[in-house]
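Why do we care about 3D structure at all? Because function follows from shape, and shape follows, mostly, from sequence. That is the central idea of this module. The next example makes it concrete: a single protein chain, its amino acid sequence, and then its structure expressed as C-alpha cells.
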Amino acid sequence: MAETSSQPDAAAQGEQDERQAPRRVDHVGRALSLGVILFVTWLLLSGHYQAFILILGVLSCLVIVFIAVRMDVLDREAHPIHLTWKAVPYWIWLVKEIWIAAIDVTKVILAPKLPISPRMVQLTSTQKSELGQVVYANSITLTPGTFTIRVFDDQLLVHALTQEGVDGLLTGEMDRRVTKMEGPT
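And the structure:
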C-alpha cells in the first residue's frame, strides 16, 4: 500500500520537474546576460585592461550574479531581457515624442500669455504585466508636460500641462506601443 501512495507523489514530482526545467534554462540565460552586462559595464567604467584587474572584475561580477541567483531576483520583471529587441524601436519612437513635447512645452512657457490649461485625466492601460504598466507610466512622465501621479490596477491618473497633452494621451498611441513592446505575457 505504501508503494501505490508513493507513485502519485513520484508522478507529481516528475510533472513539477518538467515545469521547472524551462525555468532553470530561463534563469541560466538571465544569469549569463546579467554577468555579461555587469562585466561590460565594469570594463567601460574602469578602463583597466591588465590581466590581474580583468580577473578581479570577472570574479566580482560572478559573485554578484551568484548572489542574485541565490536571492532569486532574476525574473522577467527584474531582468527583462525578453524586451531587449522589442524595446529598441519603442525607445526611438519615445525619444522623438519627448523631443516634440519638449518643443511644445517650451513654446507654451515662452508665450507672453502663458497659455496653460492644467488637466487631470484618468487613463486605462492595456498592459498585462506590472512591468508594462511601469514602462507606460514612466514614458508618460518622461514626456515633458505630462506626469503620472498614480497607477492602480489598470488605471493611471495623469496630470497634463495643456489640453493638447491630454489629447495626445487619449489617442492611445503610447499605450498601444508599450503593449506591443510588452508582447504576450
